Amino acid sequence: SDDRTRDHECPTCAKRFFTKNDLKRHGFTHSTERPYSCEVCQKAFRTTNEVKLHMAIHVSGTPYKCEYCGKEFRTKGCIKAHIKYHIGDKRHKCSICGHAFVKSADLKRHVAAHNNEKNYKCPECGSAFTRQDNLKAHMMLHSRQGVVSCDKCHKEFINQIYLKRHMHIHKEAKKKPYECQWCPKTYENLEGLRRHIKQHVGDEKFVCEQCDKKFITAIQLKRHLWLSHEEGSPYRRSIL
C-alpha cells in the first residue's frame, strides 16, 4: 500500500499533493501566464505538456488506432486515455438509464444532459449549455481567439480540427449540406439542423420585432437584422 501523505497544499484552492513537482504542475492551472508557444502557429500555453498536446493538430495522419472501436488518434497519450473508456473500471453508474462511466465527472455531465441542466451561461449573449467545454467553444466565437475559416465557403470554426472535419463536404457529394457549427454532425435539411442545435444552445428565444422570425442566439438575430432590415436595424454599427 502507499503510505505517502499529501503534505503539499495549493495556497489557492487548498488541494493537496504528494510531491512538490505535483503541486508545481497543478499551480499552472491557476496561472494566466502562458510562457510556452507553438513553433508552428505561435499559440501560447501554460506548460510544455500543453504545447505537445497542441502539436497534434499540425501533424498529418492518425497512426494510432483503437483495437476496440477503430477510432484513430494522432498521439500515444490520446489513445491511452481513450482506451480507458473501453477497459477501465466503470464504477460510476447513471441511476436514470444505467449507463456506466470510468470517471465521476463524465457521469455528472451525462446526468446534466438527462435533466437538460444548462448551468454554463455565456456572459456575452445569454446562451446556456449543459457542458463547460461547449461553453468554452462558444466563447471562442465571441472572442475570435483561434477562429479559422474555410477557404472554399468561408464558414468559420473554433479550431483546425473542426475545419479539417468540415472539409470533407467539399470532397464528397453534399447529401447532408447543413452542418452544425458546434460539432461535425450534418443534416439533410435546415429543420433537422435546428432541432440538433437546440441540444447545444437551447430554444429559439430571440425574436425579431420587425418580422417575428426566431433565432437561437443574439448573434444570429443581429446578423438577421443587418441582412434583412438594414435601414431600420439599431445593431448595424455594433456588428461591423
Automatic annotation (TrEMBL):
Pfam family of the protein (one): zf-C2H2
GO function terms (MF aspect): DNA-binding transcription factor activity; RNA polymerase II cis-regulatory region sequence-specific DNA binding; zinc ion binding
Record keywords, A-Z: Metal-binding, Nucleus, Repeat, Zinc, Zinc-finger
GO biological process: regulation of transcription by RNA polymerase II
Domain (C2H2-type): residue spans on this chain: 8-35, 36-63, 64-91, 92-119, 120-147, 148-175, 178-205, 206-234
Predominant location: nucleus
Matching PANTHER family: ZINC FINGER PROTEIN, ZINC FINGER PROTEIN 271-LIKE
Signal peptide range in chain numbering: none
Organism encoding this protein: Nematostella vectensis
A GO CC term attached to the entry: nucleus
Location of the protein in the cell: Nucleus
The protein's name in its UniProt record: C2H2-type domain-containing protein
Repeat among keywords: yes
